[in-house]
Amino acid sequence: MKAMNRRKLITASAVLAVVGLAATALPAQAAEVGVTSTQIKLGMTLPMTGTASLGYNKIPGAAKAYFDYLNANGGINGRKITLVVKDDRYVPTEAVAKTNELILKDKVMALMAPLGTANVKAVATSVNPARRGVPVLFINTGFSGFADVKKYPTTYTVLPSYIMEAKIMGEYIKENFAGKKIGLLYQDDDFGVDALAGFKTAGVNFAVKVPYASGSQNAAAAAGWITKFKAAEADVVILFGVSSATSAMLGVAAQLKYAPQWMLGSVGGDATTIKLTGVPAGVLYNAIGFSPVPATTDMKDEYVKFFSDIYAKALPGSAFDLNVLLGMNTAFMTAQALKAAGPNPTRKSLMAAIDSKGATFASSALVPAGYSKTSHVGLTGYWVGKYAPTGDLAPIGGTYVTYTTDSGSGPVVKSTYKRPPMPAKGLPN
Amino acid sequence: MKKVRLLSLLSVTALVTTVLVTAPTVANAAPACDGKSPIQSCVGVTSDGAPYAMQVPANFNGTVALYSHGYRYNVDIPAAIPLIGGYKITNTPEPVPGGNAAVAQYFFSQGIAILGSGFARQGWNPDSAIKTNVELIDTFKKQFPKTTKVVAWGSSLGGVITQGLAEKYPQLVSAVAPMCMADNITPQLTMAGDFLWGVKVLFDPTIKGGSYSAGAAGVAESYADLGKVFTVMGKLQAALATGAWPDTASPTGKSLAAAGVPSRSALLLLGLMAGLPTQSAHFDSVSGPEGALKLTFPLALSPALAILENGTNAAALAVLATQDVEAQAGGAIFDNTKTDYSARIEGERVIYNAALSGNTVIDALLGALSAANPGAPRAVANPAAVAKMNALHTNTGKINVPTVLMVGLADPITPAGASQRLVDLYAEQYAAEKAAASKAYQSSRSYAAPTNKLLMLWNTPPASYTKFNEAGSPITSTPAAQGTNHCNFTSAQLVLVAKSMVQASNTGKLPSGGSFYTAIRKAGNLSIDKGIRAPWLKSYGNN
Prior knowledge:
Oligomer: heterodimer
Order of helices and strands of chain B: HEEEEHEHEHEHHHHHHHHHEHEHHE
Mean pLDDT of chain B: 93
Radius of gyration of chain B: 24 Å
Distance between the termini of chain B: 52 Å
Largest interface: A-B, 38 and 33 residues
Shape of chain A: globular
CATH class of the largest domain in chain A: Alpha Beta
Order of helices and strands of chain A: HEHEHEHHEEHEHEHEHEHEHHHEEEEEE
CATH class of the largest domain in chain B: Alpha Beta
Structural class of chain B: alpha/beta
CATH topology of the largest domain in chain A: Rossmann fold
Number of helices of chain A: 13
CATH architecture of the largest domain in chain B: 3-Layer(aba) Sandwich
Strand order of the largest sheet of chain B: 1-2-3-5-4-6-7-8-9-10
Number of strands of chain A: 16
CATH superfamily of the largest domain in chain A: Response regulator
Structural class of chain A: alpha/beta
CATH superfamily of the largest domain in chain B: Alpha/Beta hydrolase fold, catalytic domain
Radius of gyration of chain A: 24 Å
Helix content of chain B: 40-55%
Shape of chain B: globular
Number of strands of chain B: 10
Low-confidence stretches of chain A: 1-30
Distance between the termini of chain A: 50 Å
Number of helices of chain B: 16
């Protein structure tokens, strides 16, 4: 009888041990939209087709390449990440429709990396992710207004704001082009409003400012712009617009042999995208550019090398460029946020994780992020480089000199930020 | 079985039609009933002269559904006026929406009677219409003493009347359903006034747009306005691609044209500042034809075309409702002397920046429309008339009985924001009821959770619906897309509302759960997603 009892006890202990093991190995049952015991579903809208899609349409592939790598290495606590991508063609009303689909039909846990100021604003107004409690992670726009936690409580920026970028450009101009005549081409919407605010704070006085309405950029318009810059005798011309505006401007300028010192904003400064429009890379040579992440050709950088290797395996033959690096970096940060959100992540715990730990997430960026309970500000600065004859942006003098600032009246200072090392195997801790 | 149901449907159609053409003549007499079976029809006239119709099935279960029809013009419209010409004032009773046979069939199949009047007065009439409905309920109960429950529903202005009935006389109704409900008179006429004023000061300064003369002269002025507004809309449509301005443009408009401002951007801005939806019957602001315009069409053209379509639809009501209410109030009731149109479009100027041609154009337009521009004189109301208008019935938004709301998200006449306002106000009301219940628990130790009394059904437009012909031109001959146009509901959607209202009256609870969600899905194009949020009408400010 005693022996029997002992056997039963042993059996019971074994069962408990197995249950305990299973409990450790398997994720607990989740009770959040888009989260099952085996999967976390995320959604993304951005232009995948049409003229506005050039370059940007590589972002989903880049993010998926990282998520596939992550999934193959155990996912997030055993859950694999699925990314649902919808084409919004860069049309705000379409972004609204597609985001509604992601939330209502696809039932995603969170939105990730939507692109474009107008699109994100349209979604915030019409779809209202904040009211639904849906996180909008790491948006692909630098409009400073989206960091307003009260107005967009579930939205997290990642790119430095356009105000920051303009302030840093202003600082660089002060240090290197004092007394020169400066011209500015800018998009005539909130993108441009931010830029103008940043330049004003930086104290830049323009000889000429040329606005263009979004969608109106083409070769004929560019010829008109050049006439205005020539008339103002601008020594330095800043192109603070989208890539298609940069392409139109540089393409026509090359034909007209108009060659001021070009300075390109980060949005319109991706060489791969510009080359895709048919403009030869050579026209970029010697232009000044800005980036928050390392040069995509810098294979000594552990993040660039890591992401480049994964991307080459996932999409052989596809060029590793700035959009790819940013897309993979966003996916990497998202993975860390999901991991930090606990064994059974919810929308609330995901946002709480970014609020409390986002500023310490590993990232390829060479500048710090500003996440906290009261701030949804992402990266806060840039390094300055020049374009090589190949069209690749490289740090001036071979060393990254990074500047950091805020979207207010704070100073532009050289950053002393020490980037966290890449976690083992590039997986979230 | 199918044959029987078909016959039944046919007979209901015939009955509803019969009642609609019967004209009662004696006011405040007992209703005249035909005593027929299975459906008995009664007609009569209320003390204020509203003809009514009752239809009672032989298996009457004690519940009657009272329907309130929407706004009908209170003047005849000359045949020469486009789109709406030939209309004659009518007070034909409407016991179910538009005489919808499927809806009547549903009620009769449940043993429920239907009831509705044509109201004594057309135009903006909630004050008299609510009184008419109160009398009508009493008359019905006297005629059919078996009556135990009244459910009330209505469309458009009828939604206002229905909500008003539930607010003022909750003891008379056990559930209500205001559909495509209008907002209160001031926000509704502000929306109309803003758009008309903008069309006047930019495109044709000879449009009066309000401040109409008294009597027949004022009616004639409103007819003239209708003709001018429709003419301007036609010219804007013809020049939409080029952006040319109509030859009737004001000096302000002409200076904007000279500065290169496209007329389509001006039209879009007027629609946005008034709060018109940018999705219309045929323009989704998303689709483009294959080819060069694939992206340009939705970005730059479609929103303006949607405003053109919605604005044309709304213009007739805007003119005639303004004339009607001015006649009731005794003077001009629209006043925009303090309106900040820049604040009105703060959110939209980013979203529609491309169609508005960029910030420089937007700022030029807002400058032209600002109070500082003498070339765009603001409208000044008559304070006494405004006081009279404000004394007309307005709804507080209080929800007293189980309430079902349904509205198209892109309804251009009664914007979805009017229903959203009730949703938001009820959220506050419910939170207060919960807090009161918690407080009561402190003393009684018995917690009685408040019951939800509001169900919101959003009629959502499809993700994309604009169609193009082989030449790439948009097709506008197809039926209006779901969720667009005014009170554009299917029979299935109306029956779902009717069923929900009846269920709530029987159980005291609004429907929910799996079978209800299935019913919603089957009705088509409806959503109960609490995340959907329509903007309140513009005159409320940011909500």
